[in-house]
Amino acid sequence: MVAVSSANMMSTPATKLGAIVGGQTSCKAPEIEAFDKHLPSDVSIVSCHSLHGPGVDPKGQPLVLIKHRASDAAFTFVEDVLSCLGSKHVYLTREQHDRITADTQAVTHAAFLSMGAAWCANKQFPWESPRYIGGIENVKMNVTLRIYSNKWHVYAGLAIMNPDAQKQIQQYAESVTELFKLMLGGQRDELSARVHAAGEAVFGGSRDREDLLLKDEVLDQFSLGELPEKRLKNNHLSLLAMVDCWWKLGIVPYDHMICSTPLFRMWLGITQYLFRNPSLLAECIDTAIDDNTFRADDLEFTFAARDWSSRVSLGHFEGYREKFERIQSYFEPRFPEATRVGNEMIRTILEKTT
């Protein structure tokens, strides 16, 4: 099999007769379009995408295979070659892949990127504050640092080149903004009604009987700071907005579990944990209305979500890179420890959710 970058097609007329060509990009629309335009008709096109980062063991993780233009024999050959990864093969079309990738990755990344931007704007290292230690907060911190320790283009390409991703990132920014306005206005009844409507749409019905993907006793193992004696209350705007976004877009995240990344499983796990715990959810709403502790953080988070959405909508790669690398440099001293703890957390959580 020959792997050809969709960004460099100058040599494609010289592709070996009867070759099989594929790509590993996270957005298949431009890749397949380039292959169709530049590759000779005798060349088979079988694309793929591993739904995990480079630091995750591929064994058992989903690997999407797209039989775009190929014989059964050529497709079987590609499957045999890729079987050495030990991944779980998932068969999709290009359109299905891009929609599901947007559903499971784009908004997840936007949420964590916005958290990092907010902490950087407030000159915070969250693991040094008792406000962000323990349970759910460990996922927020570890995954945010994990994302910022990677290359900017991994996330920019997925967000900017996938039209479905752009729509979802825009809706997430709108959900964050609208919920934050309800909090600022002290509109308890309106906030409660909206949060519970979103929760019912995403986690209600038969899904209410789903086992919890994550529990505090698992998450508490992976703190970057010292555990406080008493957990501080948080309104979890980022999580409330995620479920609101899924509700507004008609997305049922459980439908995509077969194609879910480790980060998405953790994100879904902590949102499910929050919304399936009535007392904790009520505490979030009360905190959002009555407690100003997180107001500065929430303000910067709202600014960040809107800013990331604007840069993505404009297709501004350099603008995306500038913001990403500026925040990356702020957190860089903690990347080695965060990567170690994050890898251990992911490994432990995957064992309990797969």
TrEMBL record:
<dbReference type="GO" id="GO:0004665">
    <property type="term" value="F:prephenate dehydrogenase (NADP+) activity"/>
</dbReference>
<dbReference type="InterPro" id="IPR008927">
    <property type="entry name" value="6-PGluconate_DH-like_C_sf"/>
</dbReference>
<keyword id="KW-0560">Oxidoreductase</keyword>
<protein>
    <submittedName>
        <fullName>Prephenate dehydrogenase</fullName>
    </submittedName>
</protein>
<dbReference type="InterPro" id="IPR046825">
    <property type="entry name" value="PDH_C"/>
</dbReference>
<feature type="domain" description="Prephenate/arogenate dehydrogenase">
    <location>
        <begin position="1"/>
        <end position="213"/>
    </location>
</feature>
<dbReference type="GO" id="GO:0070403">
    <property type="term" value="F:NAD+ binding"/>
</dbReference>
<dbReference type="GO" id="GO:0006571">
    <property type="term" value="P:tyrosine biosynthetic process"/>
</dbReference>
<dbReference type="Pfam" id="PF20463">
    <property type="entry name" value="PDH_C"/>
</dbReference>
<dbReference type="InterPro" id="IPR003099">
    <property type="entry name" value="Prephen_DH"/>
</dbReference>
<dbReference type="InterPro" id="IPR050812">
    <property type="entry name" value="Preph/Arog_dehydrog"/>
</dbReference>
<dbReference type="GO" id="GO:0008977">
    <property type="term" value="F:prephenate dehydrogenase (NAD+) activity"/>
</dbReference>
